[in-house]
Every structure is written in C-alpha cells, then in structure tokens.
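In this supplementary section we document a worked example of the pipeline. Step one takes a protein sequence of length 492 as its only input; no multiple sequence alignment statistics are reported here. Step two produces a three-dimensional model, which step three serialises into structure tokens for compact storage. The input and output of this example are shown verbatim.
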Amino acid sequence: MTDHDITIQTPNGLTTQSFDNAQAAYDHLVMLYDTAVGYLRDKFAQVMEQGVDQSRFRAYYPEIRIRTTSYAAVDSRLSFGHVPEPGTYAITVTHPKLFGPYLKQQMALLLQNHNVPLDIGPSDTPIPLHFAMIGSGAVAIPHDGAADFTLRDYFDVPDLATTNDDIVNGVSQPAPDGTQPLGLFTAQRVDYSLARLSHYTATDPEHFQNFVLFTNYQFYVSEFEEYARTMLADPDSGYTSFVSTGNAEITTADGTLPTPEKLPQMPTYHLKRADGNGITLVNIGVGPSNAKTATDHIAVLRPHAWLMVGHCAGLRNSQSLGDFALAHAYLREDRVLDDDLPAWVPVPALAEMQIALETAVADVTQLSGFELKRIMRTGTVATVDNRNWELRDNSGPVQRLSQSRAIALDMESATIAANGYRFRVPYATLLCVSDKPLHGELKLPGMASDFYKTQVARHLMIGIRSMEILRNMPIERLQSRKLRSFNETAFL
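The serialised model returned by step three reads:
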C-alpha cells in the first residue's frame, strides 16, 4: 500500500471475527487495540533511534459492528441496548481495558436483543501517534521542527475534523456505505478527552468513579477527604481507596497524602470501590466554561450520574444563608452550549435523581414533610455567564429572573445539567445559598452564620448520600428514557 509514493506499513494478522459471546468479543477488542498501539510505539522508537526511511507507519482503531435485518421486539422500558431499526451499526473503540465492564455490558445487550453476531475487527480510522503514546511513560512526541523529520509525514496525528460531538448533538450523517453510529463517541473523541482529563484534573481516567459530584467551592474537598478517611476505617463500607491530586492513593484512614506543589485547574478526588461505583468529586471552580470543559470530557467515561453541589445566590427574601435549592428547571443564560444545545431545548428534571436528592436531604437533616420546607426550596435555577451581574442595570436581569420564577442563581448548574442531557448522563442540582444580593446580603467576609457553616458541611453529605441511593438503583432504571432521542445509539 502506498500514499504519495511512501509505503504504508501496518501490523500483520489483525482480522475481523464474528462473536456471539460478549467476553470473547471483548478479548478480541483488547488484542486488536494492544497490538495496534504496541506497533506504533515500537515504530516510533525505531524512527527516533534509527531515523526515517520511505515508510509511513499506521495502525487502526478496532471497531464493533452489528448488522441486523429485523425490527426486533425489545423491552420498551429500556432506553438502551438495542438499535432502532434494521441496518449496519458500528463504533470505533479505544482503551478497551479502561472500559471493560461497560463494553461487555453493551455488547451482551446487543447479542441478547438482536440475536445476531458482533463483528470485531480493525476499522478504517487510524490511531494518532499522540494517543497511542499515552501511558507509555516519559516518552515525548516532538513538535514540528523539533525532530529531523516531519512527524505527519510518517505517522498519523490527531484530526480535529473528525473529533467532534456530531453524534451526541444529533447532527451526524450515516457513512457513505450507510453505516450508522453504534455509540455516542468515536475512539478519537474519547482519546482526546482522556488526555484532557489527565491535564485538567491531575488524576488518571482509570480512577474516575461512576458517580460524580461537582462543586465550585474548595471547602467541600476537605470535607470529602474527611469522609473518605472515615469510610476507609470501616471495613464494611465497601470503599477501597482514596485518590488525590497527582494520583496519590491511600487505602487506610491514616494514610499520608502529599501536599501538591500546585493544584490543577480542576482538582479531582476519588473515593473508590472495587466495582467502580464509588464517588468522584471535581472542584470545577467558577464559571460555565469550566463546567462545560469538565463535563465534555468526563462524559466519555459514561458515568451513571452526576450532581452539582455548589453555592448560589438566593433570590427569595424568605431564604436564609445555608438554605438548599433543589433545581427542577433551569434558566439557561450561560451561553456556552448554545451552539450544541440551543436554549429552546428543555432540560427536564429526572424523577429518579430528584427523589434520591429529596430522600438524602431528609436523611441527613432529619427533617421531613412540611418541616423540610424550612431549609429547602424546589424551583428554577438560573445560570449566568457574568460573575458580576449585580453591577449591571438590574431591571432586565431581575425581570427575567422574576418571570422565570427562579429561586437561585449560579454560574455552573444549568451548564452541567444541559451537558448531562446532551451526553445522556443523569443529572441534578442541589445548591446552598451563600448570599442574597437582591436583598442586601452580598457575599462579603464575615457574613456566614453558624447555621450557614453547619449547612455547608451537611451539603456535601447530602450529595454523597444521594449518590449512594442511586448506586443501589439498577442502571436500566436510572438511565431515563427522557435522555434518549428518536433515533438513538444502542450504547449508553
């Protein structure tokens, strides 16, 4: 095979095989991927040591492909695990070991629901060298001009033209041969996000758990670590370790965690379980851009649920500092997702998430019924992109807030919920009132009452408790049909 008079060399012996067993199909995926990545790493080392010749080195992502000719009857309660109509469906795969339980579950459902084999083999999508080298130690990829050769002449590099969210945004088109997507993310899109996650969070993707908490306040981190150590001291908790910045990991309550020289942009912490159903806490900081960045990349890990537990401005005079606001609707003025999910698209509350949160609030506060209304209000949460919105002419913003019946305002919640909707990840929001700018209580030093401080400590515990409630819910129930479109992919 040649390309512009350069011979293209590829790994030998990688073939497509058909499987009617998910474990066997998964094992072949692993072999294909490991062989392809190993080949690229070896060839890169060879080129760096011996120089280039007239060869280009290429290896391909493996893919999962299914062909069905039947409108198979499936359980109408399920929102995933089946293709919508007869045809050919495929998706490229990267890092299959990282996604092992997920891939085996999704493939097993396809085999069960359609009773046709899965074809596992090399795709026609090259693996970029940069992504093949991730996890290979301290090896650095030279920039153009830093080596004696032009990297792109001999290896494939990331192609942003094909690394996009067309599938999740519902704008993708079938391939020229009619093949439609089997999953939400192509392998290149996943690889891109895995690399960004390591950069932004300073922890490796394999540490992320299936239940994710987002916050915009550093106080929650120390509370989370304290809770983690308590859980590690309890042999019956089910938690096995706690991971901090720089992949520092402890397995005992008295384990030592080094103090990082500097924190990453989005410090992230993981309270792990052996089955991956632990809890990850991400301090995304302030602003919708950070919220979008974090969720854009975490979404490829296919978490079971995510929840925002941050601070907000209370918009009702009857609220007090430390009160909770449970979002059942969102006023989206964050603007960062307008090109991907227009503001006219409703972002519904998900019953399973709302019930879990209300139950958690009652469990932690020991309040219920009408008494619970003293500290928690349910309503619309507004998200804006201007931290100092109070300094503008208030007639416009305040009127919109009043017309929307908003009870709270922040800069992240609607972004996280909208991206949850877009990426088919169950989402919810429970905020804690930290100021009341419309009623003379600005966020200033010294204004926090003892009640407020107590409620902030409770807030994280409510988030954790809600995640533990959801963990006991079957994924088939948690994955709401509200998240799925007319012509949905089979994979979650």
